[in-house]
Recover the amino acids of this structure.
């Protein structure tokens, strides 16, 4: 396993302009203004936070996992990673990370992919892409399922082997660890706080995460 | 797994595509799209959609995690985000195709190769995968919001323990080919621009030959169907899609 680098933030939650605890299984869609810093805290440990970003002024420009990993030359996201759009612009930068590694290859769980991965009778179970669909429907403005692209899984560990294998390893996160991104343009963030109960990505126990936003320091 | 190719005695159609070219087609269920790297070193960027319901579309994260792989070869299937099988890889002489590297755009092509406009170079101008995808998607009423993570057939990226990715030179040889059997009517959109991490400093995209073959449906003992339980269930969901048809 590669070396994990931890970067602490100097921001104080007491100065945050937004502070919300998102329960497991819930969705969250929110605008982040250019220069704002957004922190996700894994309150209890090994919670997968499935996250998408969009250009707030043109949602057809959105987070692109392939462009992000290719432009940085590596698969894992951590401090310094520029989160790239489908047009190769920087949506946001990871500026602090006390987990050390995040996945963007594994995608989000869905009713249908749970059928494929686990059992045909799993379709009824709650899933990230159902959460995404509901949040997008409520957001309106014509956004639909085609706006659900390949997401980031904050706090998830999905290593690729030299032989081209993909594995889902025990998490490298723990209670209280966090990741912070700075918006490099006005962006919309869409989160599904993953409800997956079929695999150990959440230790079979989805838990809440805390979301904080700071304005840029004047 | 690298394998020899199937015979092409049921050829329905064939065409060639120059380097930097693009193509789209509805590949009918139970026909096979064979892609041949004529000179070696080709790259084929490909996206795929259910031709009747394009919201049902290629999803590489679903494809990779269901099959516990970060490369594509014989036995693997390309899955949609709705749990369906779009294509089965029924033959492959290469052994490794890239699902990670994505595709380049106009800015990247200019930065890497310089500028060669249509005005000056006519059809020898420098094309880029992003625009080629948008052009072919547009012919089917699809656009920017329909771009998905693409496969790069014939290319390979090696990933080390730190997660760093390196282009693997010489992955595909002259005459190498891959067979994609459609398990539903699939809208395929592809282009032959260079891989975005191809270290060649020259703009030199390679041509391909495309063949469309009539092939039998996947039987109960089909290799791709039985590669894993996940594949069996995806085939079941795909066959359910065709109930009553």
């Amino acid at each position: 396993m590669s070396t994990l680098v931890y970067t602490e933030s100097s921001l104080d939650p007491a100065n945050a302009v937004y502070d919300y605890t998102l329960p497991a299984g819930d969705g969250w869609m929110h605008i982040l203004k250019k220069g704002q810093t957004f922190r996700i805290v894994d309150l209890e440990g090994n919670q997968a936070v499935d996250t998408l970003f969009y250009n707030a002024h043109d949602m057809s420009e959105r987070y692109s996992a392939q462009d992000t990993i290719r432009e940085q030359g590596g698969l894992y996201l951590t401090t310094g990673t520029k989160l790239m759009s489908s047009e190769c612009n920087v949506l946001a930068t990871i500026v602090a990370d006390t987990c050390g590694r995040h996945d963007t290859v594994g995608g989000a769980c869905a009713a249908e992919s749970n059928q494929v991965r686990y059992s045909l009778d799993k379709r009824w179970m709650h899933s990230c892409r159902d959460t995404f669909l509901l949040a997008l429907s409520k957001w309106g403005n014509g956004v639909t399922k085609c706006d659900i692209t390949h997401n980031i899984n904050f706090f998830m560990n999905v290593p690729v082997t030299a032989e081209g294998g993909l594995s889902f390893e025990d998490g490298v996160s723990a209670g209280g660890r966090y990741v912070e991104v700075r918006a490099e343009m006005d962006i919309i963030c869409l989160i599904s706080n993953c409800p997956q109960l079929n695999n150990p990505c959440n230790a079979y126990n989805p838990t809440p995460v805390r979301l904080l936003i700071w304005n840029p320091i004047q | 797994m690298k394998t020899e190719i199937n015979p092409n005695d049921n050829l329905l159609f064939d065409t060639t595509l120059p380097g930097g070219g693009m193509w789209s087609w509805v590949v009918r269920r139970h026909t096979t799209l064979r892609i041949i790297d004529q000179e070696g070193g080709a790259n084929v960027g490909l996206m795929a959609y259910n031709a009747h319901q394009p919201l049902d579309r290629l999803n590489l994260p679903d494809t990779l995690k269901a099959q516990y792989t970060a490369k594509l070869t014989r036995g693997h299937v390309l899955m949609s985000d709705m749990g369906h099988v779009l294509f089965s890889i029924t033959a492959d002489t290469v052994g490794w195709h890239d699902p990670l590297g994505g595709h380049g755009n106009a800015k990247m092509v200019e930065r890497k190769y310089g500028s060669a406009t249509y005005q000056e170079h006519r059809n020898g101008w420098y094309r880029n995968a992003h625009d080629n995808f948008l052009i072919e998607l547009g012919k089917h009423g699809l656009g920017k919001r329909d771009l998905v993570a693409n496969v790069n057939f014939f290319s390979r990226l090696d990933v080390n323990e730190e997660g760093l990715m390196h282009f693997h030179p010489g992955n595909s040889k002259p005459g190498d080919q891959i067979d994609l059997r459609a398990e539903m009517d699939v809208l395929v959109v592809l282009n032959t621009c260079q891989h975005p991490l191809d270290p060649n400093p020259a703009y030199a995209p390679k041509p391909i030959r495309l063949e469309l073959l009539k092939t039998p449906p996947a039987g109960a003992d089909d290799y791709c169907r039985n590669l894993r339980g996940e594949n069996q269930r995806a085939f079941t969901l795909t066959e359910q899609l065709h109930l009553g048809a």
